[in-house]
Amino acid sequence: MAxxxxxxxxxxxxxQDGAYLAQFLLNKGYEVFGLFRRTSSLNFWRIxxxxxxxxxxxxxxxxxxxxxxxxxxxxxxxxxxxxxxAQSHVGASFEQPKGTTDINGIGVTRFLExxxxxxxxxxxxQASTSELYGNGRIEAYxxxxxxxxxxxxxxxxxxxxxxxxxxxxxxxxxxxxxxLFNHESPLRGLDFVTRKISNQVARIKLGLDDSLxxxxxxxxxxxxxxxxxxxxxxxxxxxxKPDDYVIASNEAHSVREFIEHAxxxxxxxxxxxxxxxxxxxxxxxxxxLQGDNKKASLKLGWKCKTKFDELxxxxxxxxxxxxxxxxxxxxxxxxxxxxxxxxxxxxxxxxR
Length: 352
Known about the structure:
Layout: E1 7-11, H1 16-27, E2 31-36, H2 45-49, E3 57-60, H3 66-76, E4 80-83, H4 90-95, H5 97-118, E5 123-129, E6 140-141, H6 152-171, E7 175-180, E8 183-184, H7 193-205, E9 212-214, E10 220-221, E11 224-225, H8 226-236, E12 245-247, E13 253-254, H9 255-265, E14 274-276, E15 290-291, H10 294-300, H11 308-327
Helix pairs in contact: 1-8, 3-5, 5-6, 7-9, 7-11, 9-11
C-alpha cells in the first residue's frame, strides 16, 4: 500500500481513541500531532504502551482556550483534525455540568472557527456519541433517529453535533460527526464500567481483592472494539462528501452479561463476588442503546469484526497479564496501580 503524506492533528491523544487513532494514522504514513492538556501529572501511558510516544509531535493546549487552539492549528498545519478531546465521563458531567458544557460543546465551536479563519480546506471529525439518543425508543438507532439526551454530557455533545452540521452547511466546511456507540479496549480508563469490571475480575482471580462493587447492571449497551472504530473515523474523512455516520456493532448486551463473561473468562462464578452498590447508580441513566451501522457499512465499507464475548476476553486477559507482571516487579506503562479507585475521594451525592 502506498504511503499517505498528510498531517493530522488529534485532540485527546492521551485517551483510548486518541492513542489508537494516532497509531492507525502513523501506519498510514501521516505525520501526527497530538493536542494534550498540561496537568500536574502527565498521562502518556497509552501512547507509551503502543510504542508510538517518540513518533508523535505533542502540542500543549486546552480546548477551553481559543488562542491555544489557533496556535495548535498553525503549528501542525493539518490536512485533517480529529477532535476527540472531551470531558468523557457521563457520571462526572452531573457533578461538573458547566465545565462539561464548555469543553464538550463550545470547544467544538472554537475548533470550527479556527478552521474557518485559518484554512477552510481542513477536514474535521467530531467525536459524537450514542448518548445523544438518551432514553428514546428501544430499537436500533440510526442517523435519522431523533435525539433525547439524558445527561449534561449528552446535552453538551448534542450542541457540538449541531454546530458541526451548521458549519458544514453554512460555510461549506468538510465536517463529519461520528456517532460512535460504546467501544472498549485494554486502553479504556478505569472510570468506565467495562474496564472497571475487567480490572477487578483480574484482581479477584489473583487474590488481590474479594468483590466487584457495581451500580446498575441491567442497562444495555452496544459494545465494540476501539481499534476498529478509529478506522471508521479515518474513513469518514476520505469520502468525496462530508456526512454523519453511526458506528456500532448492531448488538446490545447488558452490564450483567459483561460481568458474567468476564468471570467466565477466568473460571469464576460472578454471583460469589458481585455486590450492588446503589451509590454508583446515576441520577438519570440510559437504559438501552443499540446502533444500526447500515449506512457506514454501505458507504464506508466498515464493519465491526470483534464480537462481544471476544472483546470481554481480550480486556480481562490483558488486565490479568498486567497484574501478574506488576506482581513480578516489572515496570511498564499502565494506569491501575495509581488510580483513584484506591484512594478515598468524596464526591457530591446527587439525588433526584
